[in-house]
Amino acid sequence: MISHEAGCRFQPRTLRCPGGKDARDTGSCLSDRQIRAVEALSSPLRWKYRLASGERGYPGFPFLSGADMSTPLLGMGTRAPGHPMPKDSGYGVQFWDQWVRYFVTRDPAHDALAVDPRRPGPWQQRISRLSALQDVNDPDLRRFAEAGGKLLLLHGTADELVSHRSTVEYFRRVHARMGARATGAFARLYLIPGANHVNVDASFAASYDSLSALESWTEAGKAPVRPVVTDSIPGHDARTRPLCAYPSWPKYRGHGDPASAHSFTCHSTPPQT
Fold this sequence. Notes:
Low-confidence stretches: none
Distance between the termini: 24 Å
Helix content: 25-40%
Number of domains: 2
Radius of gyration: 21 Å
Largest sheet: 3 strands, antiparallel
Mean pLDDT: 90
Structural class: alpha+beta
Strand order of the largest sheet: 5-6-7
Strand content: 5-15%
C-alpha cells in the first residue's frame, strides 16, 4: 500500500518479459505491448481544444498504486475494446462507448473507437458544448464559502475508475483561484492510500464518518483535527491511518504498529508543478 503515490517512480519496464513476449502461462511479467498500455494509462492525456472548464487534459491513472486494473467492471477489464464494445472490456471504455454513441454522435450504431478524444474532428464543438453541461467543476467557490458551506473531499489513490489526480488538479485550481488561506477555512482534500472506487477488493477499504465531521464543522465551527480512517476489510484487524490534508500524506514513523494511525505522521511534500 503506497502512502505517497505521487512520489512513486516505479518503472514498469523492470517487469519486462524475456524478449518482450507475452507470458500468458505465468503472468509473472509484462510484454512490450502490456508495458506500452501501462505507460499510456499512467501518463497524462492532452488535447488542444478547450472544454467549458478550461481544462486541456486528464492526468492519467494511478496504475501502480495498488489498484486492480483487471476487474471486469472497473479499470481495464479483461478484454480489449472493440465495436461492438465487449461487456467485460472495463467500465472506462464502456462509459466512452455509451457517451460517444448516445451523447456526442447520437447514433447508437456509431463506432465509439473511431472518435479520437485528442483530435475529435467534426465532433469537437459538440464535445465542448456537452462539457458545459456534464463537467461542471468551477473552482470559484466564493459564494459557497460565504454562505457558510464546508467541503470535505476524500479520494482513494488506488481508484481505478476516476483518477484521484484529477481531484488534486481541481483542488489546486480552487487554491489558485481563492488563495490557500481562504480555501483552508472551508475545504479539505484527503487522499486515502490503497482505497479504490467502490471499496471492494481494495488494499484499504476506507471507512470514515464524514457526515458527522461535516456537521461538526458546519454547525459548531469545529474543523477536522487529526481525523482517522479505518480499514473495514475483514481480517485486516481494523487497520487505521491518519487522514492527511493535501498535500501532506501519511508517513510511517519508523517504529510502532504499522496497522495503527498512531505510527504515522502527516508529512508535507511540496505539490508537483
